[in-house]
What does this fold into?
Amino acid sequence: MQFELSEQQRQIQALAQQFTEREILPRAVQADRDATFPMEVHDQAVRLGLVNATLPESLGGPGLGCLELVLITEALCYGCLGIGAALCINALAAEPILIAGTPGQQDRYLRRLAEGAMASFALTEPQAGSDVAGIRSRAVRTAGGYRLNGSKIWISNANLAEFFVVFAKTDPGGGYRGLSAFIVPADSPGLTVGKPLSKLGQKAAPTTEVFFDDVFIPDNHRLGDEGGGFGLAMKVFDRSRPMVAAFGVGLIQRCMDESLNYARRRESMGKPLLEHQAIAHRLADMRLRLEAARLLTYQAAWRLDRAQRNTLQASMAKVYTADAAIWAATETMQIFGGMGYSTEYPAEKLFRDAKVLQIYEGTSEIQRNIIARELA
It folds into this structure.
């Protein structure tokens, strides 16, 4: 693995960092308070090629690799994990179509993403999060396609999406082999999107329920083979988890910078906090975990870009970075002391935004199961 970025990668990273400084940081606090996603930021990011980074050039995308996506994601989430996550989630919806979509499906739907449309990945249900085989939504065969009934929850950007990639049971008794994936346009009759759900953190990233009431899905909207949905979802997660790990890397870097700056200027007992060993050691540990999280994340992306299996590396990056992020956010609160509990300072938002990293895209417990399985 190369430990130096190429000149192109450094330019992409710098562009994303400048965009974050100019467009995300000034809006982050208000977007969090209002629980709204600033669409003007999305539109500008699309124009700069900072969204849909891995879409191939033949479909109107930048044609970048996973490592470039990670660099962009890290920079965007440094400014605001809510805004950054909402900007990057199109990549999750695009992956199943890139992996299993027909040329016609890719041309129709991925081109729309390249032009600025948003999409959602709809897997989680009220009774099925980590237990993918527990999905209850049903897609029943009918003339010319399927009839879809059921519901999804915690679906990112669903209220902004032009289409969904939906996973549903086509064979209720088939366990993991009974799951199939479909492209479902948002304007399909019988599809309803709920209001954004109230959340602890990442408030600028909308998540909603989605309901399917006898929604017709034509045969040509199924992704891959019938019954191939579980395998497709697992392939998607290998490709998307480095990006989600980069969510945490961006947040940890922000925790590091905010904590260090505060420790330099805040005095206690006649000297800056940084000169107290208890604080200095906290910052040293934060830097250690930041570098470890970054290297694990870059490694998972690097392997994917070289068509090497990265299941173990993607899970290690995701679980380590998520755990390190909530630890770093907690330490930031402690370094800020009473000010860390105030909404006038960034520490409390970092803390609120961090927690869900241990939950979505596969909980920390699920990641450890995957790591243990890979050791066998």
User: Anything to note?
Assistant: The chain is about 50% helix and 15% strand. The domain at 119-228 is CATH 2.40.110.10 (Butyryl-CoA Dehydrogenase, subunit A; domain 2). The longest helix spans residues 229-265. Strands lie at 119-122, 138-142, 145-156, 163-169, 179-185, 191-193, 207-218, 222-223, 267-268, 271-272.
